[in-house]
User: Fold this.
Amino acid sequence: MDFATALQIADSAIRLATPLLLACLAGLFSERAGIFDIGLEGKMLAAAFMSAAVAAVTGNVWLGLGAGILASLSLSAIHGVASITFRGNQLISGVALNFLASGMTVLIAQTWFGQGGRTPSLIGGGRFTSIELPFAEALRDVPIFGPIYYEVISGHSILVYVALLCVPLTWWVLFRTRFGLRLRAVGENPAAVDTAGVSVIGMRYTAVAICGILCGIAGAYLSTALAAGFVKEMTAGRGYIALAALIFAKWRPWYALSATLLFGLLEAVANRYQNIDMPSWLAITVLLVMAAGLVWGGRKGRLDMAVLGGLAAILAAVSVAIWMGSTISEGTTGLPVQLMQALPYILTVVILAGFVGRATPPRAGGEPYVKER
Amino acid sequence: MDWTKPQGRPATAAPPPDVPAIELKGISKAFGPVQASKDIAIRVMPGTIHGIIGENGAGKSTLMSILYGFYKADAGEIFISGQKTDIPDSQSAIRAGIGMVFQHFKLVQNFTVLENVVLGAEDGALLKPSLAKARKLLKELAEEYELEVDPDERIEELSVGHQQRVEILKALYRQANILILDEPTGVLTPAEADHLFRILEGLKAEGKTIILITHKLREIMEITDTVSVMRRGEMTATVKTAETSPEELAELMVGRKVLLRVDKKPATPGKTVLEVENLRVVDDDGVERLRGISLNVRAGEILGIAGVSGNGQSQLLEVLGGIEEATGSIRVNGDEVDLTGRHSDGQTRRARSIAHVPEDRQARGLIMDFTAWENIVFGYHHDPAYQKNALLMDNAKMVAEAEAKMQRFDVRPPNPQLSAKNFSGGNQQKIVLAREIERNPDLLLVGQPTRGVDIGAIEFIHQQLIELRDAGKAILLVSVELDEILSLSDRIAVMFDGRIMGERLPSETDVRELGLMMAGITDEGEEAA
Assistant:
């Protein structure tokens, strides 16, 4: 792999990590306040659709962004009413929102545009275009730093920089402000917040609203910056990967940046190397190491052991198949596209099972607050 | 240190000494049909420590929740320093200068002491100035009142005693003039409790008003200036501590009722059924709840366990019933019973012919949403007689049997298909008793058999227990009703603070003596603690 390829992969990793990062921070605000949100996926999807639709009709991407945020916020409001006011089950509410978004986006898209559940392709002012950071062109020829600055850091849409700025901002809000202190407290022990004379319900609604706004930006980014229009199910499980990243990041903003960049990188690699031939021994070794990792990760519980053991067995079977096939095709193996594309998802499972260690979620997470003595 | 001279920080404006710091008039609160507080009136003078004593469930905590804005009273008025004050929420209570130290601390475990103190009382949008201010104030308070805590330690790293200090610091940081402590010593070691009392004395000297809620007579006598007694939602008396005695308070707390007459022949005890030796239980908070209980119960007799609730009787019942684990030894009919592990649960206890009527029938004795017949089968559902074949249970048989048992125990209505929650308290208790007694156990454990039960049912339940005794069975009876203990028991053991204070024969003792023992005072006037 040469330097230019590495830069391209890094560039695309940042691009692909952005929606994950925004969604991950969205989940961070919500879960730190004690509201589990499995509906990140649905909120992103709804926002992706609404922003693409409005941008397509008005030709103004900023109006699109606003519409996307509103769509996401309205789903947040439903989640809030269900799980805060009516103390419903937060997981069920989130899953319901995911289904709702999945169905409604396609239905409305078909009704409005009649293009089979997609929006028209966005052109011109309907998309976020990449912006060039100052001196990018001038510094381009500086060795090492120049190309990194030009290729990787400069030349993204504004939302990428917004997402990156959100990381220190989130950290600052959480750990340096009164609001952050109360937010963290409400996710750990709402009774403490309540007896201190602060409204638990108010804090939680605020957190859920922030979550909605960030998901809205993430969704808008997907359809108006990363792609040029909305297509059915375009979030492709990114909301769930963001949740995995959140656990991997132990609910901390800077860790969230690293975790989402890792997932972004995996996706970039998978996109770049769709069809690769590699020596069979290497392919077999990688697969067996992954299988061993799964088994090792599953030592903790019987259920984990069963599930991960099953996955490991599949990997082992694949490597045996490669070994048997490779004797015919002279020792190299073309890894199937599907395997490469599944890579980020497989690694999500492996990371969550084996490498997270003891992540302590917010103690009051998932529990509706009932005032009692 | 000299407490009489306030030092450092000027004392917050204390109200004039002749106006009560806090006065309640006619406070009433009902939860559904249960009257938790009935027309409560109380006056607490500033700069005093006022005790509120009463048994669990007497309504103390409800009253304090009303004061702290958790519940809204149905009727009544609250005056703070002579000013009529509405307390619809905790925020208003804090503004009125009321600070509360809850029995279960309201602290964020993974926050530092400083963060917990500041939470909700920050000075501005940024934390830094608030934390700096709190750090300074905490240092002053620590010096002033022996309230030393490391401000940067996380709560989860602190001992329970230190966590409680954080709660007090929280209240003081919010400039509370009235401090309410709910069962503050329940989780403390004796040394920690003594330290707490020194802190409270210091606060009192500073002009703060302190309300101490407890069910421990020793604490009331030791530290309070005045004391109010609550019983069944009513304030039965308010007296100066110096002018009362533990036995008088015990009597006021437990209450004297018309003695219910129970016709019974003298007991004819047979062989020993239950032998308990040196039973010890340490709870999750590390507090020793049973401190070496030894007793025995013989066939054909009722051993009554008297005591103010919360002195280990519940733990004793739960250990015997296989719900809680313990160390020591229990022998039933001469055979050792497992106290820990897989063979220590309700199921194995029943197999050893031990039946258990739990103290809290709604939580432990019944599943309220299930029908009467299902409840009568529970615990014995593995009985081969109830199985139709390998897969199915014989419902018809179970229903018929339940109906017969309900008839015999006079459960009204005797309809086995009705949910447990649709029966009155007395009839619910009869369902539990029918289940346990009809299995003809060698040993019956029974806790608070007539709590919340009407007079007619009480009589019936008492008769059933006497009949079981006369049938040659051993009965261990735990009750906070002294009259019940006196009229049913053949021997009486008094529990205090996890120990047996002594055994008496009902014919040779009276309420006065038992009350003294329940307060932890033996004949010699010594106090065990």
Q: What stands out?
A: Chain B has two domains: 22-97+177-254, 272-518. The two ends of chain B are 27 Å apart (CA to CA). Residues 272-518 of chain B form a domain with the Rossmann fold fold (CATH 3.40.50.300).
